[in-house]
Write a structure and sequence with these properties.
Elements lengths: L12 E3 L2 E3 L6 E5 L6 E6 L3 H18 L4 H17 L1 H12 L3 H21 L6 E3 L7 E8 L2 E5 L7 H13 L3 E4 L6 H13 L6 E3 L5 H10 L3 E7 L2 H12 L4 E5 L4 E5 L5 H12 L10 E7 L3 H12 L20 H16 L3 E4 L14 E4 L6 H4 L6 E7 L2 H8 L4 E2 L1 E5 L3 H10 L4 E4 L14 E2 L2 E2 L12 E8 L1
Parallel strand pairs: 7-8, 7-10, 8-9, 10-11, 12-13, 12-18, 13-16, 15-16, 18-19
Antiparallel strand pairs: 1-2, 3-4, 5-6, 6-22, 11-21, 14-15, 17-20
Helix pairs in contact: 1-7, 2-4, 2-5, 2-6, 3-4, 4-5, 7-8, 9-10
Keywords: Oxidoreductase
EC number: 1.2.1.-
Family: Belongs to the aldehyde dehydrogenase family.
Length: 482
């Protein structure tokens, strides 16, 4: 891999405007998921290093919150421009450490940058209100102020965008932030730190700490009273632990957690469009997305036709190294992910499901799980309850609207849902009946900067993106004038 700007590949943490090692001098290896080769060894922070980073962020926040919205907006805009200017290099770094195909990675860079652009503009729109007084000599005003120092813990599946959609609104609101990226994919975060420095973000306002001591760092971020807000994207299990840990200091928290998205195809649907949407929703990033479709419910009348057309389309998908031309499916993140996905398939086939396509690792590379379609799946199988996080499509049959709504909602998760149908009365009924924070209707792609991203139930709370996203980093203050 050749970068035009080699200075974007960093091996140290970015703290208080400086590139530093941990005080112990320890490092850990970042590997390429495609061939397990070592990319680089980087700084391995501990609890003490994290505490010192938080102190630097606290000092920086006191000055950052004094800047005008216009000043913050201009700096964020410069950061956005630099991301777009270097999107090819940022994409290469992302593919190297995460594995997704390079065009998809570059697309993530543009998507991630869009949050910085959006919140650069929203910084100037954190309006308050003048409220009619309750007494003749009283005047009531509300203003919005930054919540304070923020901690962000981000996942490996979108190592750029999951950071920018937290950092963008935090900085726009006047908060400083400490980002802890996933141990698998820290290089994208550090590259953002380099560009943040060039953009003129003041020292200590944006900090990136890397470590493979996940629990230790998480403990400091959740227990330290200086941190007033925690934003986390990851599994529901870890999210619950973080919520409990934040309770003692009553931090403001937002959680984007696991999902079990249904993809429903009604009898009157445009089947070709549904197949197209299914591929977009399921196979992006090799199925390693929190909003990708997990359970496919297809009406009995069109089950065979849909399955046949999907099988034909999926068989054309090219698997391989994310840097190779035309590759659409890259490796899973590690060997445990491959083992988990294979276990999901084995459980289904042992209980009567049929493999229409795939069902195993690639003969060329055992980190790549082949795009898979399972038919004749039933409720008693793991594919019904587990978040698969792999390129597997299990197709269930249904006959009535009530039946499929019940199955779709039969999960503790409530992040994203998708369905295809033409009857506008059915569309409204189903869209309102689905217990999910986001619903895609006749589309398999719903993520966008301008819409509120977030779930309900055990998929978490809080919104990212849109006009609502900045509110997660603001407090409303009421002032009564006598």
């Amino acid at each position: 891999m050749k970068l035009k700007d080699k200075s974007l590949l960093k091996d140290k943490c970015y703290v208080n405007g400086k590139w530093v090692d941990g005080h112990e001098g320890k490092t850990f290896e970042v590997t390429n998921p495609y061939d397990q080769s070592t990319i680089i060894s980087i700084a391995n922070f501990d609890k003490e290093d994290t505490r010192n980073t938080i102190l630097a962020a606290e000092k920086a926040q006191k000055e950052w919150k004094k800047t005008t919205a216009g000043e913050r907006s201009q700096i964020l805009r410069k950061w956005f421009d630099l991301m777009i200017e270097h999107k090819e290099d940022l994409g290469k770094i992302l593919t190297l450490e995460q594995g997704k195909p390079l065009p998809e990675a570059i697309g993530e860079i543009a998507y991630g940058a869009s949050f910085v652009e959006w919140f650069a503009e929203e910084a100037k729109r954190t309006y308050g209100d003048v409220i009619p007084g309750h007494q003749a000599d009283k005047r009531i005003i509300t203003i919005k102020q930054p919540v304070g120092v923020v901690a962000a813990i981000t996942p490996w599946n979108f190592p750029n965008a999951m950071i920018t959609r937290k950092v963008g609104p935090a900085l726009a609101a006047g908060c400083s932030i400490v980002v802890k990226p996933a141990k698998y994919t820290p290089l994208s975060a550090l590259a953002l730190g380099e560009l943040a420095e060039r953009a003129g973000i003041p020292k200590g306002v944006f900090n990136v700490i890397t470590s493979n001591r996940t629990s230790e760092i998480g403990q400091e971020l959740t227990e330290n009273p200086i941190i007033r807000k925690l934003s986390f994207t990851g599994s529901t299990e870890v999210g619950k632990t973080l919520i409990k840990a934040c309770a003692d200091t009553v931090k403001k928290v937002s959680m984007e957690l696991g999902g079990n998205a249904p993809f429903i195809v009604f009898a009157d649907a445009d089947i070709d469009k549904a197949v197209e949407g299914a591929i977009a929703s399921k196979y992006r990033n090799a199925g390693q997305t929190c909003v990708c479709s997990n359970r496919f419910f297809v009406h009995d009348e069109i089950y065979d036709e849909f399955t046949s057309k999907l099988k034909k389309a999926v068989s054309l998908l090219k698997v391989g190294n994310g840097f190779d031309e035309g590759v659409q499916i890259g490796p899973l993140i590690d060997k445990n992910a491959v083992k988990f996905v294979q276990g999901i398939v084995n459980d289904a086939t042992n209980k009567g499901a049929s493999i229409e396509l795939g069902g195993k690792v690639s003969s060329e590379n055992d980190q790549i799980f082949l795009p898979t379609i399972l038919s004749n799946v039933k409720k008693g199988m793991d594919v019904y309850t587990e978040e698969i996080f792999g390129p597997i499509v299990p197709i269930f049959r249904f006959q009535t609207e009530d039946e499929v709504i019940e199955m779709a909602n039969d999960t503790p998760f409530g992040l994203a849902a998708y369905f295809y149908g033409r009857d506008y009365q059915l569309v409204w009924r189903v869209a309102e009946a689905l217990e999910y924070g986001m619903v895609g209707i006749n589309t398999g792609m719903i993520s966008t900067t301008v819409a509120p991203f977030g779930g309900i139930k055990e998929s978490g709370f809080g919104k990212e993106g849109s006009k609502y996203g900045i509110d997660e980093y603001l407090e409303i203050k009421y002032m009564c004038f006598g």
